[in-house]
Structures are given as structure tokens and as C-alpha cells.
Amino acid sequence: MNTDRRPEILIVTDWPINKAHGTGSCLVHIFADYPQHLLSNCFLKQCQRGELAFKNAYACEIIGGAIGLPLDTHRPDIVYSLVSTLEGFRLLEALIGMLPANTPIVQHSVDLYPASGPKADTFWQVLTSLKPSISAFWALTESIAHTLSQRLGKDVAQQPIFTGATADAIAHRYTVHAKCGVISGNFWTTNLAETVATLWTRAMAQDSSLPPLHWYCHANGLDRLGDFRRFIGSSIIYAGFIESYEALIRRMSAYDFALLPFFNGDAGIEQGRQLISTDYARYSLPSRIADYCSAGLPIFAIAPNRVETSQFIRRHGIGSTAATGDGDSLDDQLYRFRTETNALDEFSKAAADLAFEFAPKSRQQTLINAFNRLIDAQGCQRTT
User: Fold this and answer.
1) Residue 370 and residue 376: Cα distance in Å, rounded?
2) Which of 284, 326, 340 lies closest to 139, judged by CA?
3) What is the DSSP letter of 66?
4) Residue 325: its pLDDT value, please?
5) In this structure, are 223 and 347 located in the same domain?
6) Would you state the pLDDT for residue 209?
7) What is the model's pLDDT at position 82?
8) Going edge to edge, which strands form the sheet with 105-109?
9) Based on CB atoms within 10 Å of each CB, which residue in 30, 48, 163, 167 is the most buried?
10) What pTM was estimated for this model as a whole?
11) What is the pLDDT of residue 245?
């Protein structure tokens, strides 16, 4: 197999690939130096928001079993799907019907919903019907891999997608007390955002030397929170969006710790979104962990002990996790995290060490090698 040969890749996603969400940012970093004419992205039209990272990007809807994709000009050597919703899998189903039967299809599940609840039966029926057409199933987390394997009766390989900074940008420094905190990326729910804001408001009331948390996020993430804006400027300062990833990592490395707002049990569930929030908590692993590690930051995650995000952070020794109902109050656990000097330094060292595993170039080569093996196995024409 010639690893220098680069296939034409069609990436299928629920949302357009851009820097407004974690998976999109990872894909932007992974394929930053890949020839643009060999990349295209099709996504659900109803999910379109933000700028488009790829020149060849198509907002698709299913009409008469077709999706309006110009396959005459972009005939992929391989389809790389990262859809996770019922609507996304229907899009993939329609696309498969338009392609030659020997086109390799990779389904990489980085989230999984609705895996339970009212739409679950339809979700699994559609996914099961696609099983014969999918060449390889990959999963971001152990929990997703286990669920897919059990439901589909297929081997599911665990494949990371996190990307971090280049080696010269990875930071570690000794932290005495964690006073200056930073958050990057989106809040999943307004309730979770308010939990963080009120938690830090109480911390600032107890310690007058604490500054507000600084929050870096795409403008879309701020707009979708609505009433949460009332907290901005008091316990949380919106610090804007930094386009350059390396510049963001350098900026974040100036802080003492990173706060990861993931899930806080019932406090993280909004009416009408309980199913999605629960499946999100069960299966997801936020890509911003790689950002925080690249900045060498100890992580304080609001996440229950039972979810994979907490288990990942504790397993790698990069921070502490806490949630309402897990032992002491959030306030007490945050205070201990901020003031245990030796633990903070060990977290920071471990974070910087782990960051070296997230290099974008190695991620790209791993994917391309896997794609080329599938293309060879299925006899699909390869772009050189």
C-alpha cells in the first residue's frame, strides 16, 4: 500500500464542518493541509449555521430519495461519515443509494442519539439496515463502541478524533493556586451555563482575589444561550473567539486552570431535551479536553463519576470531576481543586504529556492509511 496516495474523501456530518463546534474544529485541524479539491462535506440543510470550512460543502435534504449532491464532479473514493442523529443516518442512507456498491463507507460515531427514548426503535432500525453497506464501524469512546457492538453484532474499533496543538505550543508550568480560570467551547444547555455562573459567583464571594472566569467561544455558542447573557460581565467574561488554534492555546496557557462544563445530572437537563442531554452525557467525550491538555491546564470538570468524560479525566490524571449528588457539594470540591498545590502541578504535567498524543498530522495519517486499506480491499478507484 502506497501511503503517499491521497483519496478523494466525502465527509458526511449532521452539522457543517467549521469551528463552531468541537467535532468540526477537529476535522478542520486534521485536514488543514489536505488538498481541498480532494475534500467535500455534505451535511443536513436544517443544521446549517456558521461559516463553511471546506470549499466543497453542500447543505443537503432528501428529496425523492436523492440529496442533490454533485457526484458528477465529486465522485469520492471513500465516504467518511460522522453522523450521529436519526436524520443524519437517513442522509447517509440516501447517499449510499447514489454511489457505486463498492464505495467504502466508514461510520465513525463520535456521539450517539437518540440511542434510547421514543425514537430509539426507528434509530436502530435505520442503522441496522445500513450495516451491510458500511465497510467499517468506528467509535470515539468505549461506551459508544460497546453499545454499537451489542446492538449491531459487529466489531467496532475505538478511533480517537481529538486534535491538539503542535509540540512547540504545548505548555506546562507550576501552578500554586488555581485562581484564574478559563472555559473554551460551547455550553450544552442554559441550565449548565447558569450552574457554572452561580458556582463561580459563590467562589468569588468567598475569595475576593478571584477574578471572573474567561470564556472563549464562537459567537454561535453565545447566541444560542439567550437569557444566560445576564451573567456575562459578573462571574463570567465572554472573551470572544480566537480563529487561530495555536493562538488560542497560547492564550489559554496563561490561565491557572480550565473548567469543563459537561453535565450535572438533572441540573443539566432542560425541558424537552432530556433524552438528548442524557445520551450526550452517556456517550460523549468533549474535544476541548485536548485543547486544555495542549495548554497544560489542570481540568475541573462538572461531570458525574459514572460518565466516560469523568473516567477519562481521572484515568489520565489530568484533573478532578464533580457533580451535584456525587459526595461533597460542588463548592467544596471546587475549593479543594483550586487549593491543592501538589495535585494541580501533577494534573498540569499529565495534561501536557497527554497532549503529545493529539498531534493533527499523525491523526490525518492514521485516517488516510485506514482509508487506503479499505479502498484496496473493495477495489474502488483511488485518486492519486
Assistant:
1) 10
2) 284
3) B
4) 65
5) yes
6) 92
7) 95
8) 57-60, 39-44, 9-13, 78-81, 105-109, 136-139, 157-158
9) 163
10) 0.82
11) 84
Based on the structure, what is the number of domains in the chain?
Answer: 2
Determine the pLDDT at residue 177. Answer: 66
Beta carbons within 8 Å of 175's beta carbon, 6+ residues apart: 256, 257, 298, 341, 344, 345, 348
Low-confidence stretches of the chain (pLDDT < 70) are: 1-3, 65, 115-117, 165-177, 224, 226-229, 265-277, 325-328, 380-384
In a domain, 272, yes or no: yes
pLDDT at 269: 40
The torsion angle over the Cα atoms of residues 33, 295, 220 and 141, rounded to 10 degrees, is 80
Give the residue from 54, 68, 64, 62 showing the smallest Cα distance to 10: 54
Contact 40, 46 (CB under 8 A): no
Cell numbers linked to 183: 472555559
Does a structural domain hold residue 266?
A: yes
User: Does 4 fall in a domain?
Assistant: no
Q: What is the rounded CA–CA span in Å between residue 12 and residue 133?
A: 15
Instruction: List strands edge to edge, sheet with 181-184.
Output: 236-240, 213-216, 181-184, 257-261, 299-302, 319-322
How far apart, in Å, are the Cα atoms of 152 and each of 42, 117, 246, 284? 25, 18, 40, 19
Q: Give the other-Cβ count within 10 Å of 167's Cβ.
A: 10
Tell me which residue has cell 472555559: 183
Q: Is residue 1 part of a domain?
A: no
Does 218 lie in the same domain as 133? no
Residue 25, domain CATH: 3.40.50.2000
CA gap 35, 50 in Å, rounded: 22
Same-domain check for residues 94 and 187: no
User: 308 and 252: one domain?
Assistant: yes
Domain, as residue range, for 114: 9-162+359-378
Task: Indicate whether 366 and 275 sit together in one domain.
Answer: no
